[in-house]
Design a protein that fits this description.
Layout (H helix, E strand, L loop, with lengths): L5 H9 L7 H14 L1 H17 L1 E2 L6 E2 L5 H4 L4 E8 L2 H10 L4 E5 L17 H9 L5 E4 L5 H16 L3 E4 L15 H9 L6
Parallel strand pairs: 3-4, 3-5, 5-6
Antiparallel strand pairs: 1-2
Helix pairs in contact: 1-2, 2-3
Length: about 200
């Protein structure tokens, strides 16, 4: 096994991708270099172009190559409803899975004092400025259902209360088609606490 060299460097750098360990990175590297050099070149070119041209939307902070992303630039979207998410990937997920037609605010993280991530790093001053304008009527808190996500949602809810904006948190608990015996205790506990009256 090579201890150094370009091939080793390629494998090590592929390991930076989420869910990619050394074995998977090795298979990817060999596939790209041995059998798929044209696609490897195309991938390298598009990554360099993306790094040079993709930045953050000036309004919602998601990833885009334009000043405003497609959602913020779309006049048919509801500007009175804003969904707060932790990452641009969350925007993609919600857009593909729901019929949500409002706007987004992307935190690009969650509160984590141990990692040096506070309100300033999440752009909460920008969010407060948006709420202070008075146009937003509902804030949907779609942060992850983790301790950090819950703490972040709590702080944002306080901002919403301050500016008299209705805030709601995404429901969490038992998934559609889920069987109770296969659901972890934390999820089931959350589902019990968040139960609602049947209408």
């Amino acid at each position: 096994m090579q201890k150094k060299g370009l091939l080793r460097d390629v494998i090590q750098h592929l390991c930076c991708l989420p869910g990619v360990g050394p074995k998977t990175a090795q298979r990817m590297a060999f596939q790209l270099l041995q059998r798929n050099r044209d696609n490897a070149k195309a991938l390298a070119d598009i990554l360099l172009k993306a790094l040079a041209e993709i930045g953050h939307c000036q309004q919602c902070r998601t990833l885009t190559e334009n000043t405003l992303c497609e959602i913020c630039a779309d006049p048919s979207r509801d500007t009175t409803t804003v969904c707060v998410v932790e990452s641009p990937a969350d925007v993609w997920t919600i857009e593909q899975a729901t019929l949500f037609k409002g706007h987004y605010f992307v935190l690009n993280g969650h509160l984590s004092p141990l990692d040096g991530i506070g309100p300033d790093e999440l752009g909460l001053d920008e969010l407060e400025h948006l709420l202070a304008k008075g146009d937003v009527k509902e804030l949907i808190l779609a942060t992850n259902s983790t301790l950090e996500g819950d703490a972040t949602a709590y702080v944002i809810n306080e901002l919403a209360i301050k500016h008299k904006v209705e805030a709601s948190r995404l429901a969490s608990g038992v998934p559609m088609g889920g069987e109770l015996e296969y659901i972890d205790r934390g999820t089931l506990s959350h589902a019990f606490k968040g139960r609602r009256k049947i209408e």
